[in-house]
Amino acid sequence: MMWFLSIVFLLGLSIGSFINAWSFRYKTSRSIFAPSSCFSCGKKLTWIELVPILSFVFLHGKCRSCRARISFQYPLVELITGLVFVFIAYRFGFATTNYLLLTTHFVFWSLLIAISVYDIRQTIIPNGGAYFLAALGFISPIIFGNPEMIFQLEHIIAGPLLALPLACFWFFSRGKWMGLGDAKLELGIGWFLGLSLGLSGMLSAFWLGALVGVGLIVASRIAQHFSFSMKSELPFGPFLAFGAFVAWFFDLSIASFLYV
């Protein structure tokens, strides 16, 4: 139904706007609940300047007061979150009445988007977000109506088993290849998706990360206006998040992934 689709998309836009505010204010002295203001002139923004995507378009990406440029991150994150919410609703069917299931997925994937945005900005995965994601992933069988599953060995080991390779990369490279935060992030993904989907998502993340890395190296050689090499740092959290979502949305078990 179009009305349900519209509500879900608008909800995603609003959550994306909140994610933007959080990513800029986390670990700063500014409260996440403080009124929004321009980073350049400090002027408090009115409601018409805070409408997701539309405000950025109508203001031509500039502050209405000082004309300073507004980061393109704002509409991009809002749009991505809105689309992700629509994909989640589509995955379960627009006529679903299991709102607890829907809400849990909204929360989980919103957390992954927020962590990814912060990782891109600061090249670090916040512990608070990773731990909350892990807790949500571990108790997810209870929320989904399968409480007995939380005691099953497959569920218990899914998170640690998928996090282990990333933790080994961090340990043996002394943090040069990968940060420990990526392992913490994969812990929650593994518990939430399960071993098969989680492994498919992680493999997808490595493939995508490799392709993007090679693409950036080639682009830096051609354009020569930015520098990127094998030693450059590339946040891996967004790739883990994207790979996990692709594996979940398309139901890519590890068997089907290897067969392809």
UniProtKB/TrEMBL annotation:
Membrane-protein topology: Multi-pass membrane protein
Tagged with keyword Cell inner membrane: no
Transmembrane regions: 75-93, 99-118, 125-144, 150-172, 192-219, 239-259
Family annotation (InterPro entries): Prepilin_IV_endopep_pep, Prepilin_pept_A24_N, Prepilin_peptidase/N-MTase
GO cellular component, one term: plasma membrane
Keywords from the named record: Cell membrane, Membrane, Transmembrane, Transmembrane helix
GO annotation (BP), single: signal peptide processing
Residue ranges of domain Prepilin type IV endopeptidase peptidase in the record: 107-214
Gene3D superfamilies in UniProt: 1.20.120.1220
Superkingdom of origin organism: Bacteria
Pfam families assigned: A24_N_bact, Peptidase_A24
Family in the record: Belongs to the peptidase A24 family.
PANTHER family linked to this entry: PREPILIN LEADER PEPTIDASE_N-METHYLTRANSFERASE-RELATED, TYPE 4 PREPILIN-LIKE PROTEINS LEADER PEPTIDE-PROCESSING ENZYME
UniProt name for this protein: Prepilin peptidase
